[in-house]
Amino acid sequence: MIMLRRHWPWLLAVVILLAFPFLFYDWSKGRHSGFVLTLMSEIGVMAIFALSYNMLMGQAGLLSFGHAVLLGMGAYCAAHVVLLVKAGSFWLPTELVPLAGGLGGLFFGYVFGWLVTKQRATAFAMITMGLGELVSAAALMFMGFFGGEGGIPIDRVMDTSLVGVRYTSPWQVYCLVLVWAFIAAALMRLQMQTPLGSMANATRDNFERAQFVGYDPRMVRLYQFALAGFFAGIAGGLYALIYEIVTFDTVSAGKSANALLAVYIGGAGGFFGPILGTIVVVLLQSGVSLLSNAWLLYVGVLFIVMVMYAPGGLIGLVFMHMPIWRAGRMRELLVPYVKAFPPALLVMLGFVLLVELASFTTIGAAQGKKFSIAGNTIDTLAPMPWVVAFAALVLGGLWLRREARGFRERWDALMEGAKGVKPASDPKIQIAKTQEAMS
Amino acid sequence: MEVFIVSLLNGLVYGMLLFMLASGLTLILSMMGVLNFAHASAYMLGAYFAYTISQYIGFWPALVIAPLLCGLVGAAIEMWGLRRVHRNGHIAELLFTFGLALIIEKVVQMSWGLLPVPYRVPELLDFPLFKIYGTQFPAYRAFMLAISALMFGAIWLGLTRTRVGLVIQAALTHPDMASALGHNVPRIFTLVFAAGTALAGLAGVIGGNYQVTEPAMAFTMGPIVFVVVVFGGLGSLSGCFIASILMGLIQTFAVVFDVSLADLLAKFGFVVTSTTPFAEVLNVTLPRVGALLPFLMLVLILVFRPRGLMGTRDT
């Protein structure tokens, strides 16, 4: 019962994640939507990856530009293990393949970590970038381990399952991803509370003092890096099982950048930020990239806006409201929010229209695509759409600025008022506390 | 000998091109502590601006206008972007430029298309200057050498002989003191950032038609420029110069010498067969490893000598 009371958000998450794919279930054919399942599996894998990246960036303050190396090495290790099991060299259940990837990640995390954790801050960023480039160049060069450009194709149907599942359908793989995602997330959550996790925070916040306490920051960084490698490796193993091929793409700078974007957009340091960020980034990547050529631009702009205006990420924005929530005056923010919504929407629409117009005149035209909204084809070379887009952007911007000023005053007043209020026992606050405790 | 001299010249050309990019970055990095990921994007912008301008009014005006445009872009980035982010620390600044690099690449793709643009060497310089052992040396490469040597001279004179240069040098090492003496340090930052970006733009103008002008050029050039800056050492223009030339020579010579570790071992009477452990690593030839060498150098120098060749402080 205590379990249930304390850990209900986890259970709720399990239920939602299991039920969600059924919203897209094709009842007439009696099968799941493959796209949704693959998308959700990818979110699961990337969430583990982002959380492991958060162990470096959020917890230890180490900005890595080569985290995908650990993911990729884990994936390659898992792929080789699958090939060996298939060849009959030894027996391993399919369910434990991600663990093999994790151990591979741990090994390479320790080896590479030994090199890179000699440095911190900018030098650490540089050296991880160098390592990332080094490994992705090597992945194209050495055929034996990396399989060159073709990568290493595997077949996940190994008939060695512990529970008698063959993993032929995406649904079965999704369940496996879910199980591993929860195991990894729970372990990482626990790791935050270990002395190592606390010391990682300490070396991030005050490097000199952490040394005075008697810990060797280098060792803290190394263990943190190796453990992050373990979890990234688990993600890699799952990646290998989902896509049944591991290519140099898994170690590439693009994958590392994805983790960075996800963690930063979601909010580094906490636990839910990286998960939220992963969902946003993967949805933008997979969903918007179907509609638009410019998804990377949207992610980039979102990223820059976060860096400039909300360094705490999306989750930080939510938690900024906490004092006002506690004071029970959230309702007073409703009107300013509603008032700021139309101009914000206008700015966004103007921006998207502008980007899409530009994108369709060059890239779209080269691909032979036509820009159309709700069936109406729009001539991207005519001046009218451009004028409309510009007008929406500029007018929306001015309007938003006006509303933002009013919002700011309201906000400051509420914050000022919230300072003196002590939290009362209120069911709402209980929820807020749980959220805080979990983050 | 023939191969050696030709490679030496090509290496010098490439090295000087790298130096034009790296000198701006090294000033920005050592002065403001900002690892500017968007620096190579300025290189790309320079090339694309020059391509567009040269279509309308020719290459020679582009040689002046494109870098100036890049400088303006740089100044705008510094004034409206970096200064704002500065409060959130170095990591935030770094991430800001990282996001900027992503955006610029995408914007370039949307403005000029995904494919390489036909940005060509001007006709005036499109002839072989001289022949060495039967290999022609294009006049344009000599022109590149001349421009970059000129720039090197100008930077060096500007930094050591002019008042602005001395203030920059002072702000480089002691920003607070320079500020206390009444110099407008933020404006100097903007100036240096704009000048660095303009220099990268100039490198793009003369390098874009020497290499290929495509949207991926920033992301291929960027890491190499970082390697040069870190290798040369922070706050040292001469270290940066040496590192650039070294990197240019290494990359050019790596393509030429078709040897592998196995060949080297064979000289000592140790024959590598396919069953030898690490046979694959030993058999890889130098030209194939060429692209990998800069990053190997980066990792090694950061592990063993984090301040770089001639740096005054750790990265």
Describe what this molecule looks like in 3D:
- The complex is a heterodimer of chains A (439) and B (315).
- Chain A is mainly alpha-helical and 439 residues long.
- In chain A, 74% of the residues lie in helices and 2% in strands.
- Chain A has helices at 2-19, 34-59, 68-87, 97-116, 121-141, 143-146, 170-193, 195-205, 207-212, 217-243, 253-266, 272-291, 295-309, 313-320, 322-326, 331-366, 383-419, 427-438; strands at residues 152-153, 245-246, 372-373, 376-377.
- In chain A, the strands form two sheets. In chain A, strands 1-2 form a two-stranded antiparallel sheet. A two-stranded antiparallel ribbon of chain A has the order 3-4.
- In chain A, helix 2 packs antiparallel against helix 10, helix 7 (170-193) packs antiparallel against helix 10 and helix 11 (253-266) runs parallel beside helix 14.
- The model of chain A is unreliable at 422-439 (pLDDT under 50).
- Chain B has a two-stranded antiparallel ribbon with strand order 1-2.
- In chain B, helix 1 (2-32) runs parallel beside helix 5, helix 2 (39-56) packs across helix 9 (217-232) and helix 5 crosses helix 6.
- Chain B is globular, with a radius of gyration of 21 Å.
- Chain B has one domain (2-216, 244-258).
- The mean pLDDT of chain B is 83.
- Chain B is an all-alpha fold.
- Chain B is 72% helix and 3% strand.
- Chain B is built from 14 helices and two strands.
- Chains A and B meet through helix 5, helix 11, helix 13 and helix 16 of A and helix 3, helix 4, helix 9 and helix 14 of B.
Number of strands of chain B: 2
Helix percentage of chain A: over 70%
Number of helices of chain B: 14
User: Alpha-carbon distance between the termini of chain B?
Assistant: 39 Å
Mean pLDDT rating of chain A = 82
Q: Total domains of chain A, how many?
A: 2
Brief digest:
In chain A, 74% of the residues lie in helices and 2% in strands. Chain A has helices at 2-19, 34-59, 68-87, 97-116, 121-141, 143-146, 170-193, 195-205, 207-212, 217-243, 253-266, 272-291, 295-309, 313-320, 322-326, 331-366, 383-419, 427-438; strands spanning 152-153, 245-246, 372-373, 376-377.
